[in-house]
Amino acid sequence: MPITEDGDVVRVRQLARNYAQQVALSLVDQTKLVTATSELARNTLIYGGGGVAHIEIVADGRRRGVRASFRDEGPGIPDVSLALADGWSSGKGLGLGLSGARRLVDEFDLDTEVGRGTSVTVVKWKR
Amino acid sequence: MERVPILKIGGVLLVSIQIDLQDQSVLALQEDLAEKISTTGAHGVVIDISAVEIVDSFIGRMFATIASISQLFDADTVVVGMRPAVAITLVELGLTLGGVRTALDLERGMKILRVLGEQRRGPSSDEDADPLRALL
Amino acid sequence: MVAEAGHAHRLTELLRENVDRLIEEWVTSAAVVLRGRSVRAELESEFREFLATLLPVADGDGRNLSGAEYAEIKALLEEFSRSRARQGFTPSETASSVFALKRIVFELTEQEEDPELFRELMRFSTLLDALGLWTFETYARAREEIIQEQSEQLLELTTPVVKLWEGVLAVPLVGTLDSARTQVVMEKLLEALVETGSEHAIIDITGVLAVDTQVAQHLLKTVVAARLMGAECTISGIRPQIAQTIVALGIEFGDITTKSSLADALRHALRREGIDVVRRAERRTV
């Protein structure tokens, strides 16, 4: 689904919540996943100038989980390690977006190129 | 965009968040509250988030902002009813809300505001309550 | 490799004609293995369903179960092994029910001398082998699920949240704390604070033998999360060794209240609630 305006962030959250309930994540894990998607969707909108989100259920052997990926064709992130450090922020926020989201999920994958865009993929597995 | 209603109960403004907040609603709420505090001269603000299922860094920052704004108008802010899952997530996210006061529920939040209000204006009629103790 | 079109599949025909006899013998032979732990009527209805699902695909080649036509029979067997695993049957006992059918079918066709039937029989036998192995596999998976469930239940049982006083909850932790268990405690305690409207929580770790960095972090996070909810959380009963570990690991307990014993922590919580515990004036005894 596209992320082009404020309301889309809320819709991405609701979609993530829906999938998290389908794989029966615990309430705390649901909340963590939804919060992480909210941070990432906002990043896509504000820093990436909009993009797309893709949320799906994944399975790995017996485990089930939810994967959320966000892709934009914005300016990209020049210094990834800096962007992932706590307290760093280029826009309005507490600078917890990326680093915070990473702590809330089980898998975190960041792919970015200056001038090309950024894509972030996260997975939360059922415990 | 949905707007969050602000109710006035005595000298306290009550904000009960019942919707899935989008960023615009957050910003609008901050503006509305600043406006309302200055026009009503309220001494306290209670933000009830017992219906809120997620608080991300943007919403978390709103609590701190509202607390700072109300402080400028000599009013206190209490956030009440945070769900356990939300609290755990906020801690994991690295957000501790700094100086924002919190309470388990609306009733306790109102009590804290009453005690704080008395402290500022000097104790009123019921002097048996030790404000410091009740606050801690 | 299906028998030539138009040519009726002899083995399937034969099985179809003798369904009742097959079921009868199959149940008898399976019941011997299960040594009376299964009700005959139940076995009979299970086997009847199994056979009814198997016959339409019995003329297949059977070496590869991944085809869509086998989905139904696989699901049926999965359900069968799952219920067997829950009832405490061994994997051999479970799979032998499937293998038992083989011998009975062999006995049924003993008198026949048609080479075509013999080839069909070989294929059918391969199919049953594959299905038997599938039973093993699903049985193992079901066992794993049961073990997982049980360890979760154990986790719940070993971490009780108790009420010490109106508004004061405590979790006495005993044994070894791992990250998963600490997280469960954390969630349970915070839920209980909301449910009971308590503003004080005490985590007592007198019975805890060791604490690693991760566990200590979880404890700290619990305290901070409780604070966000408007409650206060005290940690009591830190043993000297654990205190040393905490210092050695460089974990910052910051402004978190710690008390040496549960009693101290309770007194502290009561004070915060505005309750003082005083000894009654001594009464003169006669």
Summarize the structure.
With 127 residues, chain A is α+β, with helices and mostly antiparallel strands. Chain A is built from 4 helices and 5 strands, in the order βααββααββ.
Overview of this protein structure:
The complex is a heterotrimer of chains A (127), B (136) and C (286). The model of chain A has no long low-confidence stretch (mean pLDDT 87). Chain A contains four helices and five strands. Chain A starts with a strand and ends with a strand. By secondary structure, chain A is α+β, with helices and mostly antiparallel strands. Chain B has one domain (6-135): STAS domain (Transcription Regulator spoIIAA), CATH 3.30.750.24. Chain B is 48% helix and 16% strand. Chain B contains five helices and five strands. In chain B, strand 1 (6-9) and strand 2 (12-16) form a beta hairpin. Chain B starts with 5 loop residues before the first strand and ends with a helix. Chain C is an alpha/beta fold and 286 residues long. Chain C has two domains: 10-152, Globin-like, CATH 1.10.490.10; 162-272, Transcription Regulator spoIIAA, CATH 3.30.750.24. Chain C has a five-stranded mixed β-sheet, sandwiched between helices. In chain C, helix 9 (240-248) links the parallel strand 4 (232-236) and strand 5. The longest helix of chain C has 43 residues, at 115-157. The radius of gyration of chain C is 32 Å and the shape is elongated. At the B-C interface, helix 3 of B face helix 7 and helix 8 of C.
Placed side by side, the strands forming the largest sheet of chain A appear as 1-2-3-5-4
User: Element order, helices and strands of chain A?
Assistant: EHHEEHHEE
Structural class of chain A, please? alpha+beta
* Assembly state of the chains shown: heterotrimer
Tell me the layout of helices and strands:
The complex is a heterotrimer of chains A (127), B (136) and C (286).
Chain A (H helix, E strand, L loop, with lengths): L1 E2 L2 H17 L4 H20 L4 E10 L2 E10 L7 H4 L13 H8 L2 E7 L3 E9 L2
Antiparallel strand pairs in A: 1-2, 2-3, 3-5, 4-5
Chain B lengths: L5 E4 L2 E5 L6 H18 L3 E5 L8 H16 L3 E5 L3 H10 L7 E3 L2 H16 L9 H5 L1
Chain C lengths: L9 H8 L1 H16 L5 H15 L16 H17 L3 H19 L5 H43 L4 E4 L2 E8 L3 H18 L3 E9 L4 H16 L3 E5 L3 H9 L9 E2 L2 H11 L14
Parallel strand pairs in C: 2-3, 3-4, 4-5
Antiparallel strand pairs in C: 1-2
Helix pairs in contact in C: 2-3, 2-5, 3-4, 4-6, 5-6, 7-8
